Amino acid sequence: MQASTIKAQVQRALSGIRQAFRGVLTRVNSAGSVQTLQGEGLAGETFQDAELYQHYGFTSNPPAGTQVIALPLNGMTSHSVIIATEHGGYRIKGLVTGEVAIYTDEGAKIVLKRGRIIDVDCDIYRIKCKTYEVNASNNADFNTPMLTASEQVTAKSKITGQGGMAISGGSGATVDGGIKATQDIVAGKVSVQGHIHDGDSGGTTSEPKQ
């Protein structure tokens, strides 16, 4: 049998087997252990309950309109699995070589950038853990108008209130080790440096000596 004849027979056999194809998903069911998709192929065919396979440790629920690559098992469209997804409308563009990003259609994102920089952009950043450690060799800057702790804040060195400090509520402030102030301290309306007392024999005492 000539090689051309064999090639023609192989091509005829392959033409009857559905190859991997592109499509657009219309609906996702994420309730099961493996997500299933519905959508349409670019050639007009439809796929129902196609399983979406993703890498271990990473999962997403792609929105409608996401492009997919479907692989028909045994060449049958009705038994397709989804091996890749992409949505050009939401993908973060302009990454340089080596950068990695996680993102959503709402614009929340985590970008691992060149220079060992990690950028996070979101509305609420929520962490649930037993212990949260930050080991910053230089600085840990919080650029926020308010920093709140539900229980206790402990500083093992100095606390500097460059814009002033205010303590309210609870039982006040307890200080072990004394307080050193470079300016006057006022308790209520009483000045530590400028207060006077009634004298033992009438009159008043002088202000405290510096």
Helix content: under 10%
Low-confidence stretches: none
Largest sheet: 5 strands, mixed, barrel
Give the helix tally: 1
What is the residue-mean pLDDT, rounded to a whole number? 85
Radius of gyration: 34 Å
Distance between the termini: 115 Å
The total strand number stands at: 10
Which series of helices and strands comes N to C? HEEEEEEEEEE
Please state the oligomeric state of the protein chains shown: single chain
The CATH top-level class label of the domain at 3-86: Mainly Beta
CATH topology of the domain at 3-86: OB fold (Dihydrolipoamide Acetyltransferase, E2P)
Shape: rod-shaped
How would the blueprint of this fold be written?
Blueprint: H1 3-15, E1 21-29, E2 36-41, E3 46-52, E4 67-72, E5 80-86, E6 100-103, E7 109-113, E8 117-121, E9 186-187, E10 190-191
Parallel strand pairs: 3-5
Antiparallel strand pairs: 1-2, 1-4, 2-3, 4-5, 6-7, 7-8, 9-10
